[in-house]
Design goal:
- The chain is of the alpha/beta class.
- Strand 4, helix 3 and strand 5 form a beta-alpha-beta unit.
- Strands 2-3-4-5-6-7-8-9 form an 8-stranded parallel β-sheet. Strands 1-10-11 form a 3-stranded antiparallel β-sheet, with helices on one face.
- The longest helix is centred in the middle third of the chain and has 15 residues.
- The protein is globular and about 50 Å long.
- Helix content is 35%, strand content 18%.
- The protein binds N-carbamoyl-L-aspartate and zinc ion.
- The site of zinc ion (ZN) has 5 residues, from loops.
Amino acid sequence: MSLTLDTPLDMHLHLREGAMLDAVAPFSAAAFAGAVIMPNLVPPVDSLERLRWYRREIARASQGQQFTPLMTLFFRNYSAAELAEAKPQIIGIKLYPAGVTTNSAGGVANLAEADETLAVMERLGIPLLVHGESHGFVLDREQEFLPIYARIARQFPQLTIVMEHITTRRATELLDQHTNLFATVTLHHLQITLNDLAGGLLDPHLFCKPIAKRPEDRDALLQLALTAHPKLMFGSDSAPHPRSSKEGAGCAAGVFSAPVALPALAELFAQHGALGKLQAFVSDNARRIYNIAPPPKQVTLERRRWVVPARYGDVVPYLACSELAWRIADVQPA
Ligand code: NCD
Ligand code: ZN
């Protein structure tokens, strides 16, 4: 049994830089036609000069595979002239509240001060991508941020707003309440709850922001994904950290899922009799929402068992050592 996906896209991806970029980019470039590249380097990607450098680095690390990096800038208050120049180079601008996740210290401290830039983005048609978490109690951070999404959606009705990596039932409900609100969801948030991370022996490789929530949250996200809700897109949030940053005190947040994302999604959708919805979830919805047409690529998955390696270099992947039922069999163009 096989399944060919047309132009699969990962709409939320961390590729890092330097040796880590070289180690991880080939996995995404092999499986996906393109990906939305997160700008949270140190220092962040917040100028066109840095963005062009980063795009070149990603192209180099992709090792000749056809892969379109859909670049984002790190949100700061940009002038109208800067935004007009940036528009053809970017798919959107990523806003991090200051300090909510890995490498977000330079994020926005006072959201009210973002309004002027948001107004220009709305006028120019530049999408806003948001890491929507408050600084509150860890399980409530996303829910506490939802009124801010609603406020921005109302105040800027022509602005395309993407709630990145949603993790709660409440966020799924908000999606339908504002026409300009969209969302990405990760593979791991369709599968795990807080129990998998911390219910037994602690699994640092499942620690990420936003943290995995309750079974009813996971089930609501899964329901939305399996029906390929038209406002929902796949975004892996694959976020590699070396073992030295994950295993031990002070564990960094991030799950490295790029090598398993498409096979594990195929298995998950097949288990639920929803394979027919995978194309929309991993590509069509994103192309329509962002109005993009990246160079096409056909990725064929087949039902054949394999065991996920314990490590890729210095990084432990999501689903390490477990058996998966599907694997990537062919990519055209190769
Ligand atoms: C991401 C990272 O490591 O850059 N970590 C994570 O837990 N998801 C940042 C992010 O998307 O929050
Ligand atoms: Zn992320």
